[in-house]
Amino acid sequence: MPQGQTPSTPDDGLTTRQRRNRPLVVVHHGAGKGKSTAAFGLALRAWNQGWSIGVFQFVKSAKWRIGEQAALEALGEVHTSTGQGGPVEWHKMGSGWSWSRRAGSEEDHAADALEGWREIQRRLAAETHGFYVLDEFTYPIKWGWIDPHEVAETLSSRPGHQHVVITGRDPHPALIEVADLVTEMTKVKHPFDSGQKGQRGIEW
Amino acid sequence: MPQGQTPSTPDDGLTTRQRRNRPLVVVHHGAGKGKSTAAFGLALRAWNQGWSIGVFQFVKSAKWRIGEQAALEALGEVHTSTGQGGPVEWHKMGSGWSWSRRAGSEEDHAADALEGWREIQRRLAAETHGFYVLDEFTYPIKWGWIDPHEVAETLSSRPGHQHVVITGRDPHPALIEVADLVTEMTKVKHPFDSGQKGQRGIEW
Keyword Cell membrane, does the record have it (chains A, B) (predicted)? Predict the structure, then answer.
């Protein structure tokens, strides 16, 4: 449990309160389920704090996140109409980022991914959101489309109080290095192995 | 990805469609973060399907789930007012289950836990919910308060289309045996290790 004494007290010049409230870079990786769903579960906590939520999907087709997107956007509407929680923005690659004019140019995934990252850099510099989900962001890095060291530098020097959660398999070591919290989701048992395919409400 | 050919096609007399839509028992365990947050992330998908969501918290104090609870209950209110998504019920042990008259009897945790499980059995028999989260349910089983074999029998014989997600460390082998999908969350790196305590919006 995160209460009580920590194993060590770092000599970083911060008070316990300052250290406690330091914003985090979180990585969810591994071959198991739950990397993205745990990120969206964290987004519920962030929403309840009234923070602005920004979700950036780097790989999956619209189908695979439709449940989370619909639910989180509904929470964004709750914020708009009642003031409860925080605002929610959801952006995805593939059908064109919503801030981009390049919609339809699905051919050039590498350029799309880099364009998404450039926008995230601008938002981090402007402190646009309190909580970012960079969903499946490990893949465009793995495929050489985005420079992992530039990502690490941007994250470690970001201003203000901005949490960033990155999901996906095979994170580059530079991401692990810059992360404060890393969890590996390991597959122990999966219905696919016994002949069951994905289903609505569970996989999307 | 859960599309395409599965490694084996079981000789269970089911069509692919029947097998695909078979309801799941899911277990999230391990020492890492994300067991409960991934369960609540799945609840977003279930909500979007219009399923009734039932959350049953077996251990943690109200503080630790306040973000998820507020967000999921807000989604339940969206359902009530607009018809989008499904209804949400949230019940917790400790301050008394909401269906129970024993509120205030916080001394007898074992009896409280068993009472919660009995209610879940009644709901499973009545097909009350489409999606259940039994949060931290592994612990009352581990502590001998609830019989794991009875749990396994109840889960494996439950009627209709009811998904059940169980979270917590050290699940009894009978739970793993009855589960369709098991993920272990492994701690790779945690800010607590470098002297950072839990913070709002991340831990609760």
Answer: no
Cβ atoms of B130 and B163 closer than 8 Å: yes
Q: What is the 3-state secondary structure (H, E, C) of B107-145?
A: CCHHHHHHHHHHHHHHHHHHCCCCEEEEECCHHHHHCCC
Q: Quick one: pLDDT at residue B2?
A: 43
The span from the CA of B190 to the CA of A26, in Å, is 9
The answer to whether residues B131 and B41 touch, using CB atoms and an 8 Å cutoff, is: no
Query: In this predicted model, what pLDDT tens digit does every residue of B64-122 receive, in sequence order?
Result: 668 999 999 999 999 999 999 999 999 988 766 877 765 555 457 888 899 999 999 99
**Strands, E assignment, chain A:** 25-29, 53-57, 88-92, 131-135, 163-167, 181-189
Give the whole-angstrom CA distance, residue B172 versus residue A115: 47
| Residues 5-44 of chain B whose Cβ lies under 8 A from any Cβ of chain A | 6-10, 12, 16, 19-22, 24, 26-28, 30, 32-34, 36-42, 44
Question: Tell me: the pLDDT tens digits for B144-172?
Answer: 999 999 999 999 999 999 999 999 999 99
Which of A45, A84, A190 lies nearest to residue B181, judging by beta carbons? A190
Residue window 88-147, chain A: list those with CB within 8 Å of chain B. 130-131
CB contact under 8 A, B203 and A47: no
Nearest CB neighbour to B193, from listed A7, A19, A33? A7
Q: Look at B74 and A72 and tell me if their CB atoms are within 8 Å.
A: no
Can you tell me which residue has the tokens 């962001």? A137
CB atoms within 10 A of CB B14: 15
User: What's the number of CA atoms in the CB half-sphere (13 Å) around residue B48?
Assistant: 24
Say whether B197 sits in a helix, a strand or coil.
coil
Domains of chain A: 22-185 (3.40.50.300)
Residue whose entry in the numeric block shows the structure tokens 């959660």: A165
**Count of Cβ atoms closer than 10 Å to residue A46 Cβ:** 26
Locate the chain B residue with the closest alpha carbon to A176.
B189
